[in-house]
Amino acid sequence: MSRMQGAPPLADIMNTYSLQDIWRNTHPTARDFTHWSIPASSGGRLDRWLASDSLLALFTATSSILPTSGFISDHRPVSITLSFLGHAPPNGQGLQGFTLLLLNIPEACDELKDIIALRSLILFWGFLLAFLVCLSFVPVLLCPFSRPCGLSPLVVP
């Protein structure tokens, strides 16, 4: 079946189920391909994100056709970004007040990783500093006060 033969049935399905082509909505006049046939030297937009009107009443949606960088394929990946239009999503049960839906957003995960790494470094260096301060008092605590204490190693008989 060629692309032209498949277009009317797809349009019928989209009309029947109130589906919208997110990439076409985002790029109404652009021309791009998600599939390229080298033997036929032709391309088409076979890979799509379709969303219902009811979903789009709750979210704004955008879509992009991405490069295939790093791998060889006759298909290109298609991304979708959904932004919630209403009130904030419910908080999760886990971390205090942490919205678990953020874990589905790669940029949010990267930022969270950076925050955790920074806090871990701060805790590590704070612990190390406290440990070194405590070590500086050890010779005083181990030596009797009647004789001067040096930093020589403690010899246990």
Q: What's the total number of strands?
A: 6
Low-confidence stretches: 144-149
Mean pLDDT: 75
Helical stretch count?
A: 4
Tally of individual domains: 2
Order of helices and strands: HEHEEEHEEH
Query: DSSP strand (E) fraction?
Result: 15-25%
Terminal CA distance reads 92 Å
Helix fraction, binned, reads 25-40%
Strand order of the largest sheet: 1-4
What spatial form do the alpha-carbon principal axes imply?
elongated
| Biggest sheet details | 2 strands, antiparallel
- Pairing-aware structural class of the strands and helices? alpha+beta
Radius of gyration: 31 Å
Summarize the entry for a quick read:
The chain has four helices and six strands.
